[in-house]
Structures are given as structure tokens and as C-alpha cells.
């Protein structure tokens, strides 16, 4: 599942079958600039792969059921591992723009829970979340990053509804609460994947910084540009992980 400005990996998939979202019954259609919106099936690193280029965000007006519908489809098609990427605002003072942050945990700040309502039989009513991001995949990412001399950070991703970026006080608050990066995606899809028993790995590209003493402006264009710049390194890690996992 490829995030804002991070679609490059999809172009490396071979033997592809591509399905624009608008051609798939019941699929929502992505509306944000920078998301081209298609499901791509094919091969990458010797593995059968299904890529979702462009995702659905809660701020676009979709319900949580719609936001996470593609994960249900992935589950029904038998995927075993979900790799997610996103652009996020860094709040940890150790972070710089362009850093890659391996997601070790998340904090769910979305106003509606994706599992609200009748429980799907893919998992329990009250799912355990003690290891939502697979530790062996985190270890594999670390190993690959070390081999390739790519600097990676680890951290907690805070999922918020957007569409506003955070005020300086909000960045500070999310950091105080234990977050290292904040973004408007990922958490709903990861919760549903986890409920389906799918192993999950997530990586954030830090595209802007908030919560520091000197508040700075942030824009979608800036986020896209920073994500694009950092994407070759993220792609390298993801590509190798897919091959080895
Ligand atoms: N906040 C929320 N979402 C984001 C940010 C941010 O600073 N950067 C990229 N996505």
C-alpha cells in the first residue's frame, strides 16, 4: 500500500494486471492529487504481489468501512503480508526531513474505529494489539538498512483524521503522548489487516517537522516533494523485504 509520493515501487512490478479503482465494483475512488488509483497485480522480488497505488483517506469523506475495504479484498485474495508506506510529519527532535521511520507501534486518533459495528469473523471482537507491527519484519528491515547503509529511525505513528496539518500545539501534544510521527492514513488499514491475521510492516517518510520551538509552514506540495526525494531508499528497503520475507 503505497503512500503520498511513494508510488515508484509499483513501477518495478512485472507481469502486471492493472485495475483502475473506478473499474472495480464497490471500490471507492481516490481523489487526492498524487494518488493515481489502481490495483496492480504482478511479480516483485520473486513474489506474487498486489499493490494498491493510492489509498482512501478518511478526510476525503469515505467511511471507515470504505477506507479499509481494499484490505478486506486483499485478505479474501489471500495476502499474507502487508507492507504500508506513508508520508508523515516528524515530531521526534532526533528526526530530519527525508528520514525513514520504521513504524514500531501506533496511536489511533481517528474519530471512528474501523472495526466498529458487527464483528467480521476474520478475528475476535476484542482484538489483541500487543504486536501490531510484526517484530520479525522490523528486524528484517533493520538488517537490510544496515547492509545497504541506509539510516532508519524507529517510532510510533500517530494516525489522525486531517485534513488540517497540526497546529504547533497539536504536534507538541502528540509528541508528549508518545508519538514520533503523525499522519492521516495507515492506522485504519493496519487495524483491519491485523484483525485479519495479516502480518504488517509500515514505514513513514518524514516529510516535514512539527512541534519544535520554531513553528514552520507545511504544504501538500512540500510533503510530496520530500516523499519523492526519500522514496528511492524506502523502495530499496521494501523491495528487498518483499524478496526475503
Ligand atoms: N501531519 C499530518 N499528516 C501529514 C504530515 C503532518 O505533518 N505530513 C505528511 N502527512
From TrEMBL:
The keyword Transferase applies. Pathway: Purine metabolism; purine nucleoside salvage. One of its GO terms (cellular component) is cytoplasm. Its EC number is 2.4.2.1. GO terms for molecular function: purine-nucleoside phosphorylase activity. It comes from the Bacteria. Keywords: Glycosyltransferase, Phosphoprotein, Transferase. GO terms for biological process: nucleoside metabolic process. Residues 7-243 form the Nucleoside phosphorylase domain. Belongs to the PNP/MTAP phosphorylase family. NCBIfam families: PNPH, PNPH-PUNA-XAPA, PRK08202.1. This is Purine nucleoside phosphorylase 1. It comes from Prevotella aff. ruminicola Tc2-24.
Amino acid at each position: 500500500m503505497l503512500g503520498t509520493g511513494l508510488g515508484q515501487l509499483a513501477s518495478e512490478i512485472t507481469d502486471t494486471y492493472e485495475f483502475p479503482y473506478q473499474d472495480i465494483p464497490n471500490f471507492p475512488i481516490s481523489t487526492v492529487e498524487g494518488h493515481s488509483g489502481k490495483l496492480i497485480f504482478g511479480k516483485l522480488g520473486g513474489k506474487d504481489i498486489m499493490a494498491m497505488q493510492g489509498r482512501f483517506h478518511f478526510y476525503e469523506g469515505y467511511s471507515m468501512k470504505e477506507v479499509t475495504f481494499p484490505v478486506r479484498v486483499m485478505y479474501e485474495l489471500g495476502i499474507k503480508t502487508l507492507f504500508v508506506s506513508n508520508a508523515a510529519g516528524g515530531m521526534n527532535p532526533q528526526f530530519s526531513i527525508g528520514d525513514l521511520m520504521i513504524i514500531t507501534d501506533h496511536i489511533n486518533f481517528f474519530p471512528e474505529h474501523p472495526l466498529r459495528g458487527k464483528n467480521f469473523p476474520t478475528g475476535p471482537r476484542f482484538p489483541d494489539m500487543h504486536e501490531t507491527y510484526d517484530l520479525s519484519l522490523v528486524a528484517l528491515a533493520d538488517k537490510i538498512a544496515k547492509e545497504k547503509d541506509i539510516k532508519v529511525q524507529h517510532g510510533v505513528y500517530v494516525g489522525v483524521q486531517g485534513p488540517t496539518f497540526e497546529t504547533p500545539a497539536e504536534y507538541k501534544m502528540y509528541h508528549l503522548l508518545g508519538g514520533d510521527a503523525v499522519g492521516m492514513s495507515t492506522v485504519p488499514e493496519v487495524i483491519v489487516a491485523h484483525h485479519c491475521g495479516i502480518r504488517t510492516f509500515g514505514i513513514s517518510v518524514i516529510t516535514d517537522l512539527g512541534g519544535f520551538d520554531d513553528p514552520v509552514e507545511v504544504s501538500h506540495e512540500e510533503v510530496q516533494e520530500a516523499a519523492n526525494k526519500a522514496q528511492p531508499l524506502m523502495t530499496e528497503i521494501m523491495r528487498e523485504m518483499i524478496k526475503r520475507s
